[in-house]
Amino acid sequence: MTKFAGNFDLIVIGAGSGGVRAGRIAAGHGATVAVVEGDRPGGTCVIRGCVPKKLLMYGSSFSADTEDARGFGWQIDALSHDWSALIAAKDAEIIRLEGIYRSLLKNAGATLIEGWGRLTGPNQVTVNSKVYRAGKILIAVGGTPQYINVPGMAEYAISSNEALDLVEFPREIAIYGSGYIALEFAGIFNGLGAQTHLIYRSDLPLRGFDDDVRAHMAAALTDRGIILHPETTIDQVTAENSGKQAHLSDGSSLAVDQIMAATGRRPNTANLGLDDLGVKLGKQGEIIVDDMSQTNLPSLYAIGDVTNRINLTPVAIAEGHAFADSEFGNFKRQVDHVNVASAVFSQPPIASVGLSEAAAKKAYGEITVFESQFRAMKNTISGRDEKTYMKLIVDKTTDSVVGVHMMGPDCGEIMQGIAIAVKMGATKADFDATIGIHPTAAEEFVTMRSARVDT
User: Fold this and answer.
1) For 75-94, what is the mean pLDDT?
2) I need a labelling partner for 93 at 20 to 30 A (CA). Which of 2, 175, 362, 438 fits?
3) Is residue 454 included in any domain, yes or no?
4) What percent of the chain has pLDDT over 70?
């Protein structure tokens, strides 16, 4: 039996980065706000995504740094790693961040309602048998890992959620997929000493990224000791004693300690009650919204990964902020989803803004490509053969830089500054007129003078 528990101007379902930002800003504009969360405030990014993943990436990268240090004269004894200590340190930081998210809502004057919310009307949310009503409802529940339909995969494989909390470190692991999540975890497990297999259907990893970056990444992963299985699928997963068996499409099999399914994420729209209300959904279950994040129901809005537009935390935050300003701050605005920069914290990392070469050709016709490949100065002494790769894509008609791509150390930090220039419409002449900072890798972006000649 349900009972009425309160009225609000806004109810947000989901206390992730986007939902919390929307709730805080709306409350700041004077709205009465409730934020519903069935798990832990912080959402995917803080609790089980970018933050813990990058902490583990930092931890795993020290093995390569240590090897590089030998070339600079450091005498280093045999290394060992305490996986449980790293997980405990990661958990402590996540608990701290969760507390910050709770405080952000409290200090903004928003009410946190803990429990799983379900839409039971266009202006009504039911949580733990209690009914709450609001003039507007915002869905910000993010995404969830998906398992492809392979016998034994759902039963025996782990997802990125479980990979962050493994009690025992796997001596050997097979990762199925080649998107950013697969590559980031491959770098983590490989860097911490696991024999790591990356299995994927296409010829190169990172489908959807620039093809040259994909090719350079495949070479770099191999050089770092990750075993690639391109143009291969897993046909079945079985349990073997205390380990797992991945049966591959080429007839071979891998006996490993863990199999990780990293074959994408889907919008977390199940059990929200959307079908009952007639909310329009896409093929993957994503909520269809307009430029103002409004669904086909006037009172219902959605932001972030649940809309499957650009699935990045800063985009969800921007969408949440724009929603709150537009609906409660008397300041109508929408988020510009063009030229959003991103990074993959693989090892080595990659970053980009704008279009891939293939997409630029389709959009502009004639383009000019500038690229550079070199050993970073650090690697000339460390002995590492890995090369940094950089690429500029220019619209030949206007001279505008329409795509920038990089693989190599610090590329995420570098690309953030480059993204400002691209967003402002910088031309190749603007890049050429900029004096570089020496000696850095970033200066290469302003010293490329010779266009690539395609044969």
Assistant:
1) 95
2) 175
3) no
4) 100
Mean pLDDT, the chain, whole residue set:
96
Strand order in the sheet with 350-354: 342-344, 350-354, 401-407, 387-395, 367-375
pLDDT for residue 79 is more than 90: no
Query: Which residues, listed in sequence order, are joined to residue 133 by a DSSP beta bridge?
Result: 7, 124
Which amino acid type is present at position 153?
Answer: M
Contact residues for 73 (Cβ-Cβ < 8 A; gap 6+): none
Using alpha carbons, select from 262, 422, 227 the residue that is nearest to residue 344: 262
CB atoms within 10 A of CB 209: 20
Residue 334 within any structural domain of the chain: no
For range 53-77, the mean pLDDT = 94
DSSP at 18: H
- For residues 278 and 353, membership in a common domain is answered with no
| Residue 438 is a catalytic residue | yes
Q: Do residues 10 and 326 lie in contact, with contact meaning Cβ atoms separated by under 8 Å? A: no
> CA-to-CA distance for 346 and 54, rounded, in angstroms?
9
What is the CB neighbour count within 10 angstroms for residue 60? Answer: 22
Residue 254's domain comprises 153-263
pLDDT band of 2, cuts 50, 70, 90: confident
Identify whether the C-beta of residue 288 lies closer than 8 Å to the C-beta of residue 203.
no
Best CA proximity match to 139, nearest among 47, 24, 19: 19
Query: How many domains is the chain partitioned into structurally?
Result: 3
The two three-digit tokens of residue 402, written as one number: 């329409």
Inter-residue contact 164 to 89 (CB < 8 Å): no
Residues 6+ apart with CB under 8 A from 207: 178, 179, 214
CA quadruple 69, 71, 76, 81: dihedral sign: positive
Which residue among the candidates 216, 321, 337, 438 is catalytic per the annotation?
A: 438
